[in-house]
Specification:
By secondary structure, the chain is of the alpha/beta class. It has six helices and five strands. The two termini are 30 Å apart.
Length: 152
C-alpha cells in the first residue's frame, strides 16, 4: 500500500546548462505521464541558452531542483572563464534569487525507500560514481562511503 507522501512516479532531469529549449521539451514530455514529481539535479547555469527561462520553466512545472556546481560557481563568481559561462548581466534578479535558494540536497520517501536528490554525492557537488568505477575506485570514494547505506 502506498504510504501518504511516498512518491511512486518520478521524472528526473540531468544537468540543464541553460538549454531552455531542450528543458522545455523535456518538461512538456514528462508532464504527459501523471508524475508525482519532476526533479532536476542542478547545473542550470553556464550554457548557450537562457538561465532566466530555465528557472521560470522549473518553477512553472513545479520541479524540485537542487544546486549544482555551476550555480555555486556562478553565485560566488568562480570559474567565469569557462566557455559559455553565464554572465551576471544576463540573469534577472528573480533567477538569481531562485538559484541562490536552491538546497544542496532534498530528501524524499518513495515506494522503493529513501531517495536523495543531489548533484554529485550528497553535499559534495563534484563527487560521483563513474562508468568503469570498480574495485579501488569505489573503495576509496570517500564521498560515496559517507552514506551509511554503503558503509559496512
Amino acid at each position: 500500500m502506498l504510504g501518504e507522501g511516498q512518491l511512486r512516479r518520478i521524472g528526473i532531469i540531468g544537468d540543464i546548462h541553460a538549454e531552455d529549449r531542450l528543458l522545455q521539451a523535456a518538461l512538456e514530455f514528462l508532464a504527459k505521464f501523471n508524475l508525482d514529481l519532476i526533479m532536476a539535479v542542478g547545473d542550470i547555469a553556464d550554457g548557450v541558452g537562457s538561465v532566466d527561462r530555465c528557472c521560470q520553466l522549473l518553477q512553472q512545472y513545479g520541479a524540485a531542483a537542487v544546486i549544482g556546481n555551476h550555480e555555486r560557481w556562478f553565485l560566488s563568481g568562480q570559474a567565469r572563464d569557462l566557455q559559455n559561462a553565464t554572465s551576471s548581466d544576463d540573469v534577472s534578479s528573480q533567477a538569481l534569487a531562485f538559484m541562490a535558494e536552491l538546497p544542496k540536497t532534498r530528501d524524499y520517501e518513495t515506494v522503493a525507500g529513501r531517495l536523495l536528490l543531489c548533484h554529485g554525492l550528497g553535499e559534495y557537488d563534484m563527487g560521483g560514481v563513474w562508468p568503469g568505477d570498480n574495485g579501488y575506485a569505489l573503495e576509496s570514494n570517500l564521498a560515496l562511503h559517507a552514506f551509511s547505506v554503503f558503509s559496512g
